[in-house]
Specification:
It is a single chain. By secondary structure, the chain is an all-alpha fold. It has one domain (about 1-59). About 70% of the residues lie in helices and about 0% in strands. The chain has helices at about 1-35, 40-45. Helix 1 crosses helix 2 (about 40-45). The longest helix is centred in the first third of the chain and has 32 residues, at about 1-35. The radius of gyration is 16 Å and the shape is elongated.
Length: about 60
């Protein structure tokens, strides 16, 4: 029974991780459409509340 629960929890964790990555990619794609110059890593930093140096209009 523990193996089944562990497999279920692992699958759930991967679903959550994949969902977060998908949301980041959608956000990044939206910025590209708007001609924003932030990189994917900078977008992740903004989402995670980190400081990103760039022109104010880009953030």
């Amino acid at each position: 029974m523990r193996k089944i629960i562990r497999k279920y929890m692992e699958a759930l964790l991967w679903m959550i991780i994949n969902r977060l990555l998908l949301l980041q990619m959608r956000f990044y794609s939206s910025l590209k459409i708007e001609a924003n110059s932030l990189s994917l890593e900078e977008v992740r930093d903004v989402i995670n509340g980190k400081t990103v140096l760039d022109e104010q209009k880009e953030i």
